[in-house]
Design a protein that fits this description.
Number of domains: 1
Order of helices and strands: HEHHEHEHEHEHHEHEHEH
CATH superfamily: Aldolase class I
Strand content: 5-15%
Structural class: alpha/beta
Largest sheet: 8 strands, mixed
CATH class: Alpha Beta
Shape: globular
Number of helices: 11
Distance between the termini: 55 Å
Strand order of the largest sheet: 1-2-3-4-5-6-7-8
Amino acid sequence: MSQPIQPARRIPDWIRVRVHEGEHYRELKDLVRRQRLHTVCEEAHCPNIFDCWNRRTATFMILGDVCTRACRFCAVTSGRPTELDIGEPLRVAASVAELGLRHAVITSVDRDDLRDGGAEIFARTIRAIRRRSPTCTVEVLTPDFQGDPDAIRTVVEARPDIFNHNTETVPRLYRRIRPKAVYERSLGLLRLVKELDRRMVTKSGVMVGLGEDKAELLQVFRDMRAHGIDVLTVGQYLRPSPRHAPVERYYRPEEFLELKEQALAMGFAHVESGPLVRSSYHADEQVPPRLRALAG
């Protein structure tokens, strides 16, 4: 039985985004079309697309544009993927080189239809970027690979600089918001990354406004630290369409600041917390100093 469509809450002034299709926005849009690539910026209806694209940054989405899951917060098309584009890693690498990026973010749809969940394509993309742009740092934002340790190892061995996987929300809301995901599996993935390479930076993010309470959020932060996660992002959930999960409430800017201070006190190396923060928003500014030094 389908969920009833609920009226959208009025978006507060501190979340409103100015639409500005500047020169770099059009340039990057043309590049993405020419290279036949997808970006999460477009597919997920990200509110920061104009800001990021005008800064010549984008999050490339590999493994196609059809996701095998149907999370209730996400605007990416769900269904049965029909293809696997093995030339995609080379086109992503060419685009990173053409843009002259210092930091590249690579994410994907979930591909539960593939034996390795798409891990090998992630690895090929990382290596292709390394060959074309050796000083560019690489961040991956991966699916959970259904907890397959071999798939996780495949990506780690390709040596991304930052390994990101979002927990998205508090455990109590998983059944409603992420019905095919498992909270413990997401945390376990990032713990395994640290076990495989203790120097690799791990990162995760949560959305607020889905019906969680502060105590639950802070427990998620503590769980992340217990699993060795270095970087945390916290942002406001914004409903992509009336058919997605409703926004239960909008957090005020001072609440995001308070969450940041509390998370930093737990020992995170870096925390981005704000209404428009997304896991890859201004990700180039979140690169730890030691990685910047290595990249020159």
